[in-house]
Amino acid sequence: MTEISDKKASTGREAKPGLTEEDVRNWLIDHPDFLTRNADLLTTIIPPERVSGDGVIDMQSYLVNRLQKEVTQLTALQDDFVEAARTNMHTQDMVHASIQAVLGATSLAHFVHILTQDLPELLEIDVITLCVEDGPIPLPDMTGLQRLKEGSIDRAPWRGHAILLRPVAPKSKAIFGPAKDLVHSDALIRLDVPSLHAQAMVAFGSRQEAHFHEDQATDLLRFLGIVMQSCLQMWLEQKPA
Questions:
Q1: Average model confidence (pLDDT) for the chain?
Q2: Cα angle at 144 between 139 and 147, to 5 degrees?
Q3: What is the pTM of this model?
Q4: Name one Pfam family in it (predicted).
């Protein structure tokens, strides 16, 4: 019977004096759920490489190896989930800050300024524009407001959705103006603003390719779009003093 030394093990921890392998074995037999409750220990077990005549040890080795891989995969999955949760919380905070900003507008011009000049920093992207097709409602020239030819917005590949995410964006001076060469990925949000009597959308541009992609959740962008179109509708309905 092998006695476990009371000297420091390779891990640097003190083993209990006089504790034998038989003691450990018997304790594990008496506590069969120990490894279930401490599954991370399975990753430190060295499975036996020899095979007995009846193949029992080989099966044990296979099972332990499989459990080790499963524990490693689950740990990695948990880490990915935690990171995704942190990223989602950060995105949610950015969207909430942006909504507070646009709700603080005091005029149509101020709203467009906040949308196109302040929100890029809050949302950590490079450029935002408000795109409105030509229509009967006159709009003053404002930085960040892009006027499009009638029918331009409908030509985008929306596929029945109100949000379009493109990992690789075509260069478009019509949408991004002087920032067209900067934008490599974009997100387009259609706006429903009856008072405009014209199609409209908000365009988000990033210099990072694949910053926006089709696998991304769009709930927060959709909510932000609803707030934007409501604010724009409200300011268009305001009667001049």
A1: 85
A2: 50
A3: 0.67
A4: DUF484
